[in-house]
Structure formats: structure tokens, C-alpha cells
Automatic annotation (TrEMBL):
It is found in: Cytoplasm. This is GTPase HflX. Its cofactor is Mg(2+). Its main location: cytoplasm. SUPFAM superfamilies: P-loop containing nucleoside triphosphate hydrolases (SSF52540). PROSITE patterns: G_HFLX. Pfam families: GTP-bdg_M, GTP-bdg_N, MMR_HSR1. Residues 192-375 form the Hflx-type G domain. GTPase that associates with the 50S ribosomal subunit and may have a role during protein synthesis or ribosome biogenesis. One of its GO terms (cellular component) is cytoplasm.
């Protein structure tokens, strides 16, 4: 896409039976920056060579010619041979991609960090690998490089792809070790870690801004390089590709709230696997807020909740609080029916509207209650030259209830994570040794 002219696309989808649903793929096409100029759908078993039936492919070609579309996007997974065959049937110059190639394009557009860029490249290589293998295999069998227009084959290309995949995995592993150290530093500093999870367009970024609207982490603090004080809130897919962390203050604790890439339906394992390091912020959190769009049909919410649980419970040990968002778009009676029907998947959910900022106080209370319990401690500090620095440290890392200053000692009553209580004892012991 160059210049001021927006590229155009036609959507195609086949289902085995029933009526093809194209809302999500249409959103994806628009998120990629294309103008949607038509769609062609079909209900039948897959054609091994063309995905669609021959007659429907002819109709698709006519639609492309009539609209002068630049690209055809299939909501089905296309094999390399199907992609080639479809290209032969469509007007010259028409690009043919499936939903997974389109998602990779969107990810590539939104990848603004080294980690995100590596994950996009990893996914692209995993997408390309079976196609490179197919080129090599087919050309070998026919002893003709470039057979069927698949291009010159080079066996070393497969090895290059596999070697690059290995190097990217190693680099992502090193990045994840750094991020894990950052999480531990944050906990040692007294922060609780809360992660937002859920499908795209559930309203996670808007909820992030509502819960942590005005309180920013110190931008000069190297513990928080992922700080974003202007997290976007858009009605758009994949607005958040990497992670965005902001500080949220509760009455008795400091919380770091992290928004992550949204889930999307029917992703193949290789694509989910490529972005699993992004989900580490979810897996390693103290609490997960699973955000769903309450205005969607019941069956869609049920399916997304079930899939989200499969993803989250694979490695996550933190408690999960389900948040029914966008209540401003659904009648109270309908919302109550949905919450009752989904009680098994979402026990005791919290219903909010991030857009209208309604019921957020109840959500804050649930967050506070669901996070790891704090210990209450009464610390007696002897009065020395360093006592006030310890008092200041406790203020920074705990919820201080009272401080009583005497002539010979200072008594602090506070609540904190167990690790902070343990460190406070060590600091108090050091003061006693100095006294």
C-alpha cells in the first residue's frame, strides 16, 4: 500500500454447513488497512485444489475483476498449492492470503518493540516453513525447479528458516529472563501484579486507562521500561500488541496493571506458540482479570470464555476474576440472563462499563480481595542515624497504618507482602546492631 490510495480487498469464506460468519475477518481486513469491497461465501465441503468449488471461484474472480481488488483474503486456512491454484484463477496481480497471513501482516504493522518484532518474525518463519518444504518436495518429485510456479527451490532455505527460528527462540528466552527479573524486582518493591486478558475488542485498553488513569510509574525508574502513560483505547483489533503497564493505587496496596495482546479465535498452534512469551505477563501475575464483551451473543461469550480458560489454565496459577465489560450496550435483564447462564465458566463476575466508568469501585474491591493476603506487622525500630531511612522505605513498600515517634524508638504499624515484612525485619535487625 503506497501513496494516498487505499488498497482494496475481497473476503472469501467457506464452511462445511450453515451460514458463513464474516464479521471478524472483515474487521481484520480493515485493521490491516484495506478497504473492503466485497465478499464471497460458500457452504460445502472443502475443495482440495481450490478450497471453494470451481463455480464459486469463477464468481470470486468476477467480483475481483469488477471491483479491481488488490487482494483476496480467505477466512480459511490455505495450503501452498491452494494458494497457487487460486492465483491462477484470479486476475493477474491479485494477491491471495489466508486469515493467518493477514494476522501476521497486522502484527507486523503494530510491532514497535524488539520483543514484538521477534515474535512476528518467528510466526512468519513458522508460516513459511511448510511452504518452503512443499516447494522442495514437489520440485524434487518432478525434477523441475520452479514446478507449478512455486519458484526455485533451495534445500538450504529450509535449514536457514529452522536456524533462524532457533536463534529467535534463544533471544526471546533471554528477553523473558530479563522480564522475569523485573517482575520479581517489582514484587520485592511491594507491588502486586495484575494482568488484563481477553479477546480483542473486549475493552481491555479502555479498562486499563480507567483503572490507572492518572497515576504513572516514575519514568526514570528502570524497573518499569514498559510504562506507557498514554495507553491507547481504540475500537480496533490488536491495538495492544506488546504489553502496556501502568500503576494503579488501591486503598491498601500498590498495583501494576498490565494489558496484553488480545486473544483471537481459531488461531493455529504455531501462531499462539510464537506469541507465548507475551502471555508470560499473564501467567506470572498475582491476579488475572479476564475481560469479556457482555454485549456479544451468549454462545460467542461462552466459546471465548472456554477457550480463554484453556489458554490461561495451561500455565497460570493466579486467581481469575471475570469482568463483563460494555454493560452500557446490553439491557440489565439480558445481562443477568447471560451471567446466570455462564455461572459455571464465570463464577461471581464483576459487570462494568469501562466506557462509562460504571461499577469500577466494585471491581477495585474485588481486585483487592483477590490479591495475595497482606501481613500486618508492628515493627519497633531503635532511634539511630539511619532509622528515618528505614521508615521511609516502609512507606514506599507497604501500607502504613500508623507511625509513633518516641524519644528512643519508632513504632510502625503496617501491612505488606510477606517478602516485604521479612525484609523489614532484616532492616530493623541492622539498626539494632548499629545502636
Amino acid at each position: 500500500m503506497t501513496g494516498d490510495t487505499t488498497a482494496t480487498a475481497v473476503v472469501a469464506k467457506r464452511v462445511d454447513d450453515g451460514t458463513p460468519e464474516t464479521a471478524e475477518i472483515r474487521d481484520l481486513v480493515q485493521a490491516a488497512g484495506y478497504e473492503l469491497v466485497g465478499e464471497v461465501t460458500q457452504s460445502r465441503t472443502a475443495d482440495p485444489a481450490l478450497q471453494l468449488g470451481a463455480g464459486k471461484v469463477t464468481e470470486l474472480a468476477e467480483r475481483v475483476a469488477r471491483t479491481d481488488a488488490d487482494r483476496v483474503v480467505f477466512d480459511n486456512r490455505l495450503g501452498p498449492y491452494q494458494t497457487f491454484n487460486l492465483g491462477q484463477e484470479l486476475p493477474d496481480g491479485t494477491e491471495v492470503v489466508d486469515r493467518f497471513r493477514l494476522i501476521l501482516d497486522i502484527f507486523g504493522q503494530r510491532a514497535n518493540t524488539r520483543k514484538a518484532q521477534l515474535q512476528v518474525e518467528l510466526a512468519e518463519l513458522r508460516y513459511e516453513l511448510p511452504r518452503a518444504e512443499a516447494k522442495t518436495s514437489l520440485a524434487k518429485r518432478n525434477e523441475r525447479p520452479g514446478f507449478m510456479g512455486l519458484g526455485e527451490y533451495d534445500e538450504s532455505r529450509e535449514q536457514d528458516i529452522k536456524a533462524r527460528i532457533s536463534r529467535i527462540r534463544d533471544e526471546l528466552s533471554n528477553i523473558e529472563k530479563t522480564e522475569q527479573q523485573r517482575r520479581e524486582t517489582r514484587r520485592e518493591s511491594g507491588f502486586d501484579l495484575v494482568a488484563l486478558a481477553g479477546y480483542t475488542n473486549a475493552g481491555k485498553s479502555t479498562l486499563l486507562r480507567r483503572l490507572a488513569a492518572d497515576v504513572a510509574v516514575d519514568e526514570n525508574d528502570d524497573r518499569h521500561p514498559d510504562l506507557d502513560t498514554t495507553a491507547e483505547s481504540q475500537d480496533d483489533l490488536f491495538t495492544t500488541l506488546g504489553t502496556t503497564t501502568r500503576r494503579m493505587e488501591l486503598a491498601r496496596r500498590d498495583v501494576l496493571l498490565t494489558d496484553t495482546v488480545g486473544f483471537i479465535s481459531d488461531l493455529p498452534h504455531w501462531l499462539v506458540e510464537s506469541f507465548k512469551s507475551t502471555l508470560e505477563s499473564v501467567y506470572q501475575a498475582d491476579l488475572v482479570l479476564l475481560v469479556v464483551d457482555a454485549s456479544e451473543p451468549l454462545a460467542d461469550i461462552q466459546e471465548k470464555l472456554a477457550t480463554s480458560h484453556d489458554t490461561l489454565y495451561e500455565r497460570n496459577e493466579a486467581p481469575i476474576v471475570t469482568v463483563f465489560n460494555k454493560t452500557d450496550r446490553v439491557e440489565d435483564a439480558a445481562l443477568a440472563e447471560k451471567m446466570e447462564a455462564l455461572a459455571a465458566l464465570a463464577p461471581a463476575p464483576v459487570a462494568v462499563s469501562a466506557r462509562d466508568a460504571s461499577n469500577l469501585e466494585e471491581l477495585r474491591e474485588r481486585i483487592d480481595a483477590a490479591l495475595p493476603a497482606r501481613e500486618r506487622e508492628r515493627l519497633v525500630l531503635p532511634m539511630t542515624e539511619d532509622t528515618m531511612s528505614v521508615v521511609s522505605w516502609v512507606h514506599d513498600h507497604a501500607h502504613v497504618r500508623t507511625v509513633d515517634y518516641g524519644d528512643q524508638e519508632v513504632v510502625i504499624d503496617f501491612e505488606a507482602r510477606p517478602t516485604i515484612v521479612e525484609r523489614s525485619h532484616a532492616k530493623a535487625s541492622d539498626l539494632v546492631a548499629e545502636a
